[in-house]
What does this fold into?
Amino acid sequence: MNAITSCLTAIWTSSIGKKLIVAITGAFLVLFLAGHLVGNLVVFMGAEPFNAYAYFLHHMLHGAGIWLFRLVMIAALGLHIAATVALTLQNRAARKQYECKSTIQATLSSRVMIVSGLTILVFFIYHMLHFTVRAGAAAGYDTAERYQNFKLPGAEHGVHNAWLMVIDGFSVWYVSAFYILGMLLLCSHLSHGVQSIFQTLGLRSKKATALLKLVSVAYSVFIFVGFVSIPIAILVFGFGR
It folds into this structure.
């Protein structure tokens, strides 16, 4: 146990260790976003497919699966932000010793990443609360009975109508606006973060730099358009209403 603690302490106290934590947790979160987007887009298939998907997620491992995954997500996000903050403070201290243009640029970049990262954390917490305890729901959309007893083929009892909850949630303009703003910040963060993951893991060469930058931007645009298409379809075009 002492050996494990010493190893973890050594990783955390070194700048390389913290960079690896940021890269590994970042890679996990990047992959999660792609999977989460695919699942969210099922909403366009209608109430039955989306509610079947939601029912599966909430009944994995007898209901424990979704909570285990949420805990892993929170831990990964927490480690990612904590390591980023620690690196930013470390870079700020180093700047006092090595005043040069590249160091200043790197520190500025870190500050931008940390601000957007903390904003994304607030957005993530709100997003979780909004679709679990209906935080921020407008009048008429906060009745629990409204989302009960959806008739899903194969289910023994009526299930939760997650599809209608999504429709109702994004029918509120300020919820959709905050969601779009959150996704804009997230994807701005991704456009720099994805290529940083490759660099930290030693997978970026000079020849591949331009390509990786293009991939990072393209992935960020893909994630943004995919997620934002849902509130826009509901709020602007009346999908599901």
Remarks:
- The domain at 17-235 is CATH 1.20.1300 (3 helical TM bundles of succinate and fumarate reductases).
- The chain is about 75% helix and 0% strand.
- Confidence is low (pLDDT under 50) at residues 101-110.
